[in-house]
Design goal:
The protein has helices at residues 26-41, 134-147, 169-188, 220-234, 246-255, 341-359, 377-384, 390-393; strands at 46-48, 58-63, 74-87, 90-95, 102-108, 111-119, 125-133, 163-164, 200-207, 238-242, 260-262, 266-267, 274-275, 278-280, 285-294, 314-322, 328-335, 364-369, 388-389, 428-433, 436-443, 459-465. It has 466 residues and is of the alpha+beta class. It folds into 2 domains: 12-188, Peptide deformylase (Peptide Deformylase), CATH 3.90.45; 201-465, Deoxyribonuclease I, Chain A, CATH 3.60.10.10. The protein is elongated. The structure holds zinc ion (ZN). Zinc ion is lined by residues 96-98, 142, 146.
Length: 466
């Protein structure tokens, strides 16, 4: 990374309407890194590309959390941003890295909605809509103005409010320190906002339904392409897959070249066996160690079903390290029996005790199809062991009458009614313990009825890693 020179007021590039970004390559990502570095060094919270002399529609913003305004910290790099909604107004002092040492009162919209291509943790640019208010909304408006060749000084409400602020070297250093501490604490503790965070991890839990079932229009050969397209659309860094059979895996290996796979121990009583496979992007995660066990009194050996289960079941785990950042965590993926409550409870106890040994002091992530609702004993056991359920942590409430909470649908989509199928509603969970903080939760309902990617919906959670 490099710290670049910030162009000062008077330079023509600041008065220019910038051109749209059309090439999204490694050079652009490097430019983003340099812009963040430059902005941090200058104690700024936003920077537009023409401020470093490049008339491109590209901005970076990193606003530290503001407890007073009940704002969370927010970091984003966005290409071709567009303000699509502006509401309310607020007049407060504003400054600019290109008008060094000056501040003045500017009236801005209080709420904005900004649309553009945001740089995602996987290095890809994705169309995003961001809603913001207060200081963050102001930052978006200020940076978008830059892209149209407008400086805040031309918007100053009352020219007499424009004044010079002198800061000693010491004060500047102190300010730099304060800003970096604020940002660090936001990264470690309180969750940042959704979407385009640089140090976050996107995880999917997905029961994909084995390839060897007579599912008619939803038989695997008919829905495999839709299934893969759904995974690609969301581009998770890590996936806990359930019910993977050999033919599913062969197709994935051919059509998802960006992923590596660890099938883990086979389950089900006869061929074709199932796997609670893990899939991850090696560009983001490095596999350090992997293992697995069976949910039975002899966890180290494949044997017949135990504890009243219909099938013998398994769990698959791996220890990963973030390629950028170096944080480590353990991920365990499982699929509990669908009939025996005893097998669900004993399986959960076994998972908790094995995981405690495997993870040491590392953060842990558990994904799975638990085949029971969150009012069940397995769910209570996880919470009692200090795990948090991402869905609940993010403020959602369980309500079996609320179809948007269901994660399974038996290929019926919106026509699914839990009462017809063992009352199953939200049975796919993403649970964490330690410094893995969920920041957003979504159930991906993409489908082409009567064809569906699977008989479960994939569940997506974005985490920030401390
Ligand atoms: Zn500025």
């Amino acid at each position: 990374m490099a710290i670049l020179d910030i162009v000062q007021d008077g330079d023509l590039v600041l008065a220019k309407k910038c051109t749209r970004v059309t090439t999204f390559d490694a050079k652009l990502r490097k430019l983003v890194d340099d812009m963040f570095e430059t902005m941090y060094y200058a104690n700024g919270v936003g920077l537009a590309a023409n401020q470093i002399g490049l008339p491109l529609r590209l901005i970076v913003i990193d606003v530290p959390p503001d407890a007073e305004d009940r704002q969370r910290g927010f970091k984003i790099a966005m290409a071709n941003p567009e303000i699509v909604r502006l509401e309310g107004e607020e007049t407060t002092p504003e400054g600019c890295l290109s008008v060094k040492g000056w501040v003045g009162d500017v009236q801005r919209g209080y709420r904005v909605e900004v649309k553009g291509l945001a740089l995602m943790p996987n290095g890809q640019w994705k169309e995003q809509k961001v809603k913001a208010h207060g200081f963050l909304a102001r930052a978006f408006q200020h940076e978008c103005d830059h892209l149209n060749g407008v400086l805040y000084t031309s918007r100053v409400t009352d020219i007499t409010t424009l004044h010079k602020i002198e800061r000693s070297e010491e004060e500047v250093e102190q300010l730099r320190q304060q800003l970096s501490e604020l940002r660090e604490s936001a990264n470690a503790g309180a969750a940042k906002d959704t979407g385009a965070l640089m140090a976050s991890l996107r995880v999917m839990s997905f029961n994909i339904r084995g390839a060897n079932y007579p599912d008619g229009v939803n038989a695997w050969p008919a829905r495999a392409a839709l299934n893969v397209a759904t995974i690609q659309q969301y581009g998770p860094d890590l996936i806990g897959l359930q019910e993977v059979q050999a033919d599913n895996l062969t197709y994935y290996r051919q059509h998802l070249p960006a992923y590596q796979f660890a099938p883990g121990p086979q389950y089900n009583n006869t061929e074709p066996y199932d796997y609670v496979a893990l899939a991850w992007r090696p560009e983001r995660l490095q596999l350090l160690h992997a293992g697995g066990f069976w949910l039975s009194p002899q966890p180290a050996h494949y044997s017949g079903p135990a504890w009243g289960a219909v099938q013998v079941r398994s769990a698959n785990w791996a220890r990963f390290e973030l390629v950028q950042g170096g944080q480590q965590f353990v991920h365990l993926n499982t699929h509990l029996d669908y009939i025996s409550e005893q097998a669900q409870v004993e399986g959960t106890k076994l998972i908790l005790s094995q995981l405690a040994g495997v993870r040491g002091g590392l953060p842990a992530l558990v994904t799975g199809d638990f085949n029971c609702n969150p009012d069940s004993e397995p769910h209570a056991l996880f919470l009692a062991a200090g795990y948090q359920d991402s869905y609940i942590t993010l403020g959602n409430r369980d309500d079996l009458a609320d179809p948007t909470s269901y994660t399974t649908h038996y290929f019926l989509g919106d026509g699914y009614r839990p009462q017809d199928f063992h009352g199953s509603g939200r049975i796919d969970w993403l649970l964490t313990s330690g410094a893995l903080t969920p920041t957003s939760y979504a159930v991906a309902r993409d489908a082409q009825p009567p064809a569906y990617p699977s008989d479960h919906y994939p569940v997506l959670v974005e985490f920030s890693l401390g």
